[in-house]
Amino acid sequence: MNIVLLGAPGAGKGTQAAKLVEDAGLCHISTGDILRQAVKDETELGLKAKAFMDAGDLVPDDLIIDLMRERIDQPDTAKGVILDGFPRTTTQAVALDSMLSDLGRPLDAALLIDVDPEVIVKRLSSRRMCRECGHIGTASDAKCPVCGGEMYQRDDDNETTVRNRLDVYEKSTSPLVDYYRGCDLLITIDGDRDPDVVYKDVKGALGL
Ligand code: AMP
Which protein residues are within 6 Å of ligand 1, measured from CB? Predict the structure, then answer.
């Protein structure tokens, strides 16, 4: 099964993806996670991407498409993938169609986790991430509840950058909702609820 997760930053895509990995054994690919690791490791990609990420802007399509073309061809994707944070533009969606068609693996669904933007601003301003394992928590977690690692606020989770990320989402990424509706692949889930309740709907919609 190959799934695209759509939704504004902070809609809960990462949380739902983690549950799907556990239940369905799919390979989770998050372009945001790959880019953050590249920035940390100061690779050529990381150095090119950092300024865009810090401002909450999109990294240029050609860099992201090259990165995904390489990633999606790795052996761990054979059982299926959950794409989280990719595609984010129509150009990326068209490139994805061509990558999957080359691999003979069609897309099964584009799952939109739908959340009100004002809820998102509040969620992201209090979101914290574990430096060690990437667990997503809140400002009330002194240490990571999973591994005990240090929790930190992502550079791009401050209110100004969050508002820019939401603007970028509206302009560049929300047209993908129509794109996938046109391909008859769109499934919309109300994401403004407890993550476990959202996940029940996700599983039902995917027939898991
Ligand atoms: P995320 O963790 O998905 O919110 O991504 C964090 C940041 O990484 C975004 O604000 C962008 O700067 C960059 N990024 C992640 N995925 C993409 C993508 N598919 N296209 C362009 N930029 C991306």
Answer: 9, 31-32, 35, 52-53, 56-59, 64, 85-86, 88, 92, 156, 165
Please list the active-site residues: 13, 88, 127, 154, 165
Q: What is the full per-residue pLDDT of the chain (208 aa) written as tens digits?
A: 999 999 999 999 999 999 999 999 899 999 999 999 999 999 999 999 999 999 999 999 999 999 999 999 999 999 899 999 999 999 999 999 999 999 999 999 999 999 998 899 988 989 999 999 989 999 999 999 999 999 999 989 998 999 999 999 999 999 999 999 999 999 999 999 999 999 999 999 999 9
Please compute, for residue 19, the number of CA atoms within 13 A of its CA located in the half-sphere on the CB side: 15
The label of the residue with tokens 């390979």 reads: 27
Which contiguous run of DSSP H or E holds residue 58?
Answer: none
Residues in the chain: 208
Read off the pTM. 0.89
